[in-house]
User: What shape does this take?
Amino acid sequence: MDEVDWAAMRHAYGSADKVPDLLRGLASSCPDERESALDGMYGAVHHQGDVYDSTLACIPFLFALITHPEVPDRGALVELLVSIGGGDADESFDGDDRKDEYDDGDEYGNDGAGAGDNYAMARAAIRAGAAVFAELIEDRDPEVRRAAPCALVRFLDEPARVLGLLGERMETEPDRRVRPALVEGLGLFARRHPAAAAPAVDSLVALSVAPGGPGERLAALGQLAGCAPERLPSDLAPTVIALLRARSQEPAEPEEPERPATDTLIGQLRVLRPADEEGSRLLRTLHSALGDRTADRIALLNGQLRSEAPADRCNAVWMSAGLFREWRASYEKPIALIGEQLDADDTRLREAAVHVLDGLFELAAPAADHLAAAVAARPESWVRHWEHGAPTLGDALKTLARTGDPRTVPPLLQLLKQPVVPYDLGRIVEYVGPAAAPLAPLLRTRLGDVPLDADTYDRAAPLLLALSALRHEAAVPEVLRLLPVVPDEVPDRSALVEAAVRTLGAFGPAAHEAIPALRDLLTSDCAATAAAALWSVEEDAKTVLPVLLRELTSERPRQRQAAAEALGRLGASAGAAVPALRGMAGTDDAGGGRVWERTAAACALWDITGAPEPILPVLRHAWHENPYTRGTIAACLSRMGRAATPAHDLLRTELGTTRRHLARSGGYGGGDILEDERLLRICRQALETG
Assistant: This one.
């Protein structure tokens, strides 16, 4: 190892000269040292799945470590090798194609084709040593035996031998924690070798029925769902629920000695992992494979959420999050059952339930009664305090507010009277709607008390957002206070000014005393926003139109887009902007701007001219080019009424699509549910108006 020129190599954070220390740490007799070293491998040498020249240089030494029985934690090292070889990617993935994802390169030499070459070389190196995995499938360490099957399938290019090894080990493996990993290997084999998959599928079918243990049978059903869904039983949901309950009644495996918490990412993940990690994995595999079979997945969740075992219910709650985020369906029943978990004695279960409900916004309404009961029963939970930073709203109160439930108003009123207001209180007022009107006077007072210092924006922005949502016109003086006196050196000054200006615009003509301040801002960095607000206040096209025409040629894309959006609000009064907007939209064959600029310009052209023909092709193209534009486009189509009829196919297709338009594979995506539900609502409105 000392003969390698590590200093000439790189990893995610620069020179790889300390990598030998990490490799030695992986072989340490001290658990904390091993964990820190593994954390360093994932954090730098194999950062976020990247493969550097130093990663390649580590491969022979990792192979050496996993072949020495005296080295502890070798199962984790097998998993590291699998990840380096691209084993966390799709089963049909060919490592040589991965370079296409990295054409832009990075600052440490993973540039374009070079990055792709690294992945290809890593995969080739691990394939060259893959015979080791055939030996490890019979290793004395059960954690090694759990990691070996998938490594064997992914990297040993001898399908017949691999299938034979898996079958033989399946017959002799005594550890019920290892057998599901062998089942997973069979499923992976069937997906990677479809021409030779029949024997593996037949084995999975046989393993999915008695006399196998419930964990093993659940694993087989999950793999069948991914490689041969037609071989699944017709009564899938009842079968799975029965197996889950049988599994929860099995004698518990001896618990491993609890390791102390460490500062490593791996240590933190160990603390956060599910109480029943294997059950979570089995359920996640099945749900992922079922994909858009939402009826089956909902039935599974409903059954598991009624389980007597808190761990089963907790797993179901976490599994529901991906389903809700990725797919459209009627979720009233599972959401109501998740709400019932708020009454559980298990703290982890309650926290999981409120966390999942928090991301559902108005869809969480079936759980509102349980949320309201939790809020009423635990006033001490209304505020969440942090070691660093300002306090925030407690999860249950915030989640209830996001459903639009008026029962949040009394607690919010009490919190507004406290010396320190939760940082995010103002951001949830818009979800409560008109019922939050009693909060407005106190919100105004709190805004007037915000000091002008380094934290002004953080304190004022949520309050401004709330006052905008409530249209509390009496707060004009408090908003104006922020404009002329905010020092230039205050952090986020531009963002603060824009937020204040948008709030004045929301007040409309009632903000007439703000006209001089808004006019002063027409030559500032937020000129387009100021012009839009000024139009809302006094509707003087002679004043704002020249400003917006100027901003259409700004060097900043966001300013050009903001100007186009503001011109649309002027309607026919913005006729002079039509030629420039046509150029931005590309309707004059001049090319057009970026997708958001084209969309804003096309929508403005409709609002100004009322002519649908030039803009409908632009909107159609943007709809397909960037799904994030669909809410804006659907709103424009709704304003167009019958004139939008040629584009109604887009709306009908969207309403008939089961996958959420912003969803990413695996159910990831923060605010996707909120945006998607808004899109669906606007699509329906547009069809009704047309």
About this structure: Residues 672-689 form the longest helix (18 residues). The first strand starts at residue 10 and ends at 11.
